[in-house]
């Protein structure tokens, strides 16, 4: 059974229909790269899966549970699916450790010592155990993004959504974040990531989704999609036309 | 006629200043608490409460404080409720202060990046948790300078309560003037005392603002 099932999902902002019937099933352990032009609806799709946007029609289910827009269902969903943002969105008034601990203690009611132990373990996993007491503005962009990943992992999600998580980084910091994601993929984490890192998509992803004008325009294993694009739109996007 | 020395005048004014200070504190603390409640309504999920808070602010910001004092003092009297001046003054100033603080604070909450709401939501936090642990700690920090700055307006606002007969600094000034016929000395001293109360407040607001703008801006 698929872990994430996206069926005929439609989403409009006013009269602008951004998602025009998306179908996509993601199996456990799959790493999905979502590529496509600006405005094709990639971020909107991820945000719908996490309930940050309400869908107009169709359905999304995660691990068998339907996405519903009330606070209780949303909370249950978000405990299963973590999200990493382009702009990191760390809590600036808390240390790296505090960032990773907060939602554990507040949402899951984990006692503080356990939350701290988990935070240290997760920071170690992203190579930042020594930055436990550093505030976000004392960290580089790459470090901040890794803390954000640790923060999401501490909730022990079964899948992670990543929206262009390296796009706000200086080029020399991109690889440290991608290395962390690569590690997660190896450990079997289910990932849906919007990315412009084509080489990374080719190396790490199980499938590539090419979105065009609110639809899944082409989908397949990276070898196929990159080497042998079927549609002129994908060819053009990949710079082959 | 009794002769008033300079020190008599000053002593009388300083005694009345206690009431100005007390009324300011009551207005500021009470207004702060009421303002916090209104803030939760204003940015909460419930439409009816949001509208209530909005109209409350518009009503109290859109009418002179003096009218609010009159209404609290004389208005309730019409219903046979005898409101003492201190009560009317306290209630009116609390409501008035709350209306301004809630707008100051709402601006600070809205200055918090939308990404903070989304990140905390994506971690499973509910609205109240997001407010309590993520948004308010950041918003209150940036709210401190304008809030302290506004306290100056509260102190000056207390002067109006002299009109409904509450004996604070301004009213004492009038009383002492009538007894001494030295308006210039008396009102000069009154002004100096107000200045001594307000200046440290506005100065510390400036200093706080500068402090928060330099170095570690975020924590
Ligand atoms: N909150 C919103 N309100 C109105 N329109 C929106 C909103 N969010 C997105 N859109 C519109 O939806 C369309 C798709 O946006 P989306 O962010 O999903 O694109 P994207 O594929 O992620 O693009 P990019 O590569 O630039 O991030 C765009 O036309 C955008 O203007
Ligand atoms: Mg996007």
TrEMBL record, chain A:
Mode of membrane association: Peripheral membrane protein
Gene3D superfamilies according to UniProt: P-loop containing nucleotide triphosphate hydrolases (3.40.50.300)
Keyword Membrane on entry: yes
Ranges for domain ABC transporter: 4-238
Family matches, as Pfam families: ABC_tran
Transmembrane segments: none
GO MF, any single term: ATP hydrolysis activity
Family the UniProt entry places it in: Belongs to the ABC transporter superfamily.
Protein name (record): Amino acid ABC transporter ATP-binding protein (PAAT family)
Automatic annotation (TrEMBL), chain B:
Keyword set includes ATP-binding: no
A single BP term in Gene Ontology: amino acid transport
InterPro entries for the chain: AA_ABC_transptr_permease_3TM (IPR010065), ArtM/GltK/GlnP/TcyL/YhdX-like (IPR043429), MetI-like (IPR000515), MetI-like_sf (IPR035906)
Source domain of life: Bacteria
Gene Ontology CC, one term: ATP-binding cassette (ABC) transporter complex
Membrane topology: Multi-pass membrane protein
Segments crossing the lipid bilayer: 20-43, 55-79, 85-105, 139-164, 184-202
Domain spans labelled ABC transmembrane type-1: 17-205
PANTHER family: BLR6398 PROTEIN, MEMBRANE COMPONENT OF AMINO ACID ABC TRANSPORTER
Protein name per Swiss-Prot or TrEMBL: Amino acid ABC transporter membrane protein 2 (PAAT family)
Taxonomic lineage from the root: Bacteria, Pseudomonadati, Pseudomonadota, Alphaproteobacteria, Hyphomicrobiales
């Amino acid at each position: 059974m698929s872990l994430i099932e996206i069926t005929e999902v439609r989403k409009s902002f006013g009269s602008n229909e951004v998602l025009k019937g998306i179908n996509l099933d993601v199996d456990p352990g799959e790493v999905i790269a979502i590529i496509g032009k600006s405005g094709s609806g990639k971020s909107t799709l991820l945000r719908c899966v996490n309930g940050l946007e309400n869908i107009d029609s169709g359905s999304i289910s995660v691990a068998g549970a339907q996405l519903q827009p009330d606070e209780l269902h949303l909370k249950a969903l978000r405990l299963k699916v973590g999200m990493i943002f382009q702009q990191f969105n760390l809590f600036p008034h808390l240390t790296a450790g505090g960032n990773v601990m907060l939602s554990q203690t507040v949402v899951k009611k984990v006692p503080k010592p356990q939350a701290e132990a988990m935070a240290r373990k997760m920071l170690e996993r992203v190579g930042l155990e020594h930055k436990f007491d550093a505030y976000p503005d004392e960290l580089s962009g790459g470090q901040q993004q890794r803390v954000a990943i640790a923060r999401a992992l501490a909730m022990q999600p079964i899948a992670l959504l990543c929206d262009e998580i390296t796009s706000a980084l200086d080029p020399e910091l991109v690889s440290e974040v991608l290395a962390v994601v690569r590690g997660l993929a190896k450990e079997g984490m289910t990932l849906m990531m919007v990315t412009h890192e084509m080489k990374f998509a080719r190396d790490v992803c199980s499938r590539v989704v090419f979105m065009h004008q609110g639809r899944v325009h082409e989908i397949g294993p990276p070898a196929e999609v990159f080497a042998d694009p079927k549609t002129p739109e994908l060819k053009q996007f990949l710079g082959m036309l | 006629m009794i002769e008033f020395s300079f020190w008599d005048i000053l002593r009388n004014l300083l005694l009345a200043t206690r009431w100005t200070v007390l009324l300011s504190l009551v207005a500021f603390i009470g207004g702060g608490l009421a303002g916090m409640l209104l803030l939760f309504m204003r940015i909460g999920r419930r439409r009816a409460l949001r509208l209530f808070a909005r109209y409350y602010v518009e009503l109290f910001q859109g009418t002179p404080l003096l009218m609010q004092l009159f209404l609290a003092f004389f208005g309730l009297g019409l219903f046979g409720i005898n409101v003492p001046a201190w009560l009317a003054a306290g209630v009116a100033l609390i409501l008035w202060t709350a209306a301004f603080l809630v707008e100051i604070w709402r601006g600070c909450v809205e200055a918090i990046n939308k990404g903070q709401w989304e990140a905390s939501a994506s971690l499973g936090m509910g609205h109240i948790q997001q407010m309590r642990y993520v948004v308010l700690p950041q918003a209150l920090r940036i709210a401190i300078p304008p809030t302290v700055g506004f306290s100056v307006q509260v102190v000056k606002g207390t002067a109006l309560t002299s009109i409904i007969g509450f004996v604070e600094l301004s009213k004492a000034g009038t009383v002492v003037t009538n007894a001494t016929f030295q308006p210039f000395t008396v009102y000069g001293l009154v002004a100096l005392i107000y200045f001594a109360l307000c200046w440290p407040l506005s100065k510390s607001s400036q200093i706080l603002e500068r402090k928060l703008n330099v170095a570690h801006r975020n924590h």
